[in-house]
Predict the 3D structure of the following.
Amino acid sequence: MTDSTELLLSSTSSQSKSKRQAREFRENIIQALLVVAAISSVFITLGIMEVLVGQSWKFFTNPELKEVGVENIFADFFNLKNPQWTVLFEEKHFGIMTLLSSTFLTSFIALMVAVPIGTIVAIYLSEFALASVREWLKPILELLAGVPSVVFGYFALNVISPFVRSFNQDIPGFNRLSAGIVIGIAVIPIISSIAEDAMRAVPNQMREGSYALGSTRIATAISVVFPAAFSGIIASYILGVSRAVGETMIVAVAGGLQPLYSWNPLEGAATISAYIVQVTLGDVPYGSLEYESIFAAGLTLAFLTLSLNLIGFFLIKRFKETY
């Protein structure tokens, strides 16, 4: 009887050990896949930057510009007094601020639309909406985030632009105000969804403590929940800015393709992404100076997005420490 008991215990221990080894093997496989995925993302990013930097250097050292000199090209590229971007013209200038001005302007207009509306929607969904309302309203917002950019572009061109021109017929059909407004509409789901998740993550004890002190729901939402979730809300703003800065089809369809240095939103002008679309339509030969210029413009856009993300990272870190 004792021998059979020991045999049973030994068999059970062996099965348990085999199951544990199988579970550890599966966990090791999953961990290895996660490590490969993480390393792959790093290498892909490095590969993209290598292409941008390498092709940009070819642009700045192109033999066609040998007589100009790379120092003069860099000086022209960062010219802030009289920037001109006429790479596709016979007389070539490389003032990237021409394209950056339109990128900044459309992004600013987009944020003026998306930040207040997205924040209000997030506060409503988190603090005031019934569960049944939230269940159908949030999927609609997420569906709006999935609308292709080209659809938004033609919406800006055929709906928003005629509405803007109804106030003044001298406004051109292609203008950065219409493009910026529609970019803001496209960014609203990103801001509202992430900000709402951040607010819902705030512990209910903080709300209950505010109610116990006599605060109303709106006062609690603004004075308690919003500051407590501010790091997540800042993250939503930064993602919204990155989407607005990198938007391509909306500005290409509705914002215009002329490289014009102007801060007037009622005029049409090309952004960096719109210029890249214009060059890659197929009329410019591969390997030419004009073709290589898109990598210099793309590298500028990449550094701009990286700078915004770094600012957002430090802001998130600061407010996490505060709250």
Remarks:
- The mean pLDDT is 83.
